[in-house]
């Protein structure tokens, strides 16, 4: 099922950082905007605004954040698919993250124009 969504382009650059399992959460992680921690057997991943990350910390910089503005129940199918399919068709790689209420899609800043065009062509509304 294809959904037409209202998507906000967040006005900040984000970074994705990989830490060793068992690392302490850094003091610079929490703050304004979206931030997240995910952990697996292999690694701990942090996502936050790039401006907060010290230059000594190895990170993947230059990510832009697209936030789905609508809220859907967990069992509603096709929400992320309606965003990821046009991005994949346009050759745009993503890093996705979800909260209880919505989804966040991170794309490389160099792919931003292509991503926005693909999403609009799919019928989504992009807000900045």
TrEMBL record:
Name any one Pfam family assigned in the record.
A9CJY8-like_N
| Residue span, A9CJY8-like N-terminal domain | 13-55
Question: What's the protein called, per UniProt?
Answer: Aspartate kinase
Q: Which residues form the CASTOR ACT domain?
A: 61-120
Highest taxon of the lineage: Bacteria
């Amino acid at each position: 099922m294809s959904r037409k969504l209202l998507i906000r382009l967040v006005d900040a650059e984000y970074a994705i950082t990989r830490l060793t399992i068992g690392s302490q959460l850094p003091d610079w992680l929490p703050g304004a905007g979206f931030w997240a921690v995910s952990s697996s057997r292999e690694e701990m991943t942090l996502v936050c605004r790039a401006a907060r990350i010290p230059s000594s910390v190895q990170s993947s910089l230059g990510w832009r954040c697209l936030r789905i503005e609508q809220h859907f129940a967990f069992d509603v199918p096709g929400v992320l698919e309606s965003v990821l399919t046009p991005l994949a068709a346009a050759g745009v790689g993503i890093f996705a993250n979800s909260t209880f209420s919505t989804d966040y899609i991170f794309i490389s800043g160099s792919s931003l124009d292509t991503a926005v065009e693909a999403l609009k062509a799919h019928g989504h509304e992009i807000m900045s």
